[in-house]
Amino acid sequence: MGKIFCLIGKSASGKDSIYSRLLRNKELKLKPVIPYTTRPLRKGEKDGESYFFRSDEEARKMEEQGRIIELRAYDTIYGVWKYFTADDGQIDTASDDNYLLIGTLEAYTKIRDYFGEERVIPLYIQVDDGIRLSRALERERAQNYPQYAEMCRRFLADEKDFSEEKKKAAGIRKEFVNLDLEDTVEEIAAYIKGVC
Description:
By secondary structure, this protein is of the alpha/beta class. Helices cover about 40% and strands about 25% of the residues. It has a single domain (about 5-195), classed as Rossmann fold. It comes from Candidatus Eubacterium avistercoris.
């Protein structure tokens, strides 16, 4: 039975960088699972790479069709942005393939409940809040239209969304501390190999 590895962590913890490096590791043979969002594209993003960008109407239709596994809606200063994982054929449950996706604690628990605890494995990324804030600020400065207020809202919301109580309730037992990106990727790759 294939595994679904779910990278979890607060904003600016390095999930995207870890994700791309793990996918490039040919030994791991991981297939990407691309989530969906209704938020606007950021500078450098392309539809179908980090996200499938969809309108609210398209998201509503997918929900009506029963294709959404989990959906989170965030009331941002720019309006409500939705993020979701869909049962759209990206994950073949009949195969022995292994998959990698990025999500929140809430997304992880819903995906785990949908596909089964024996199949969905959490990879929790931990980073010092000061480092995260610095990374988030640097990323926002690089945007054509920086959204500093939204960056701050997300940073503060992470404190509740990733509280110790919620991590414990989700069954998170192992954390990977991302002090050095390459070391963290190697540690996670070794863990994945041990699980598969």
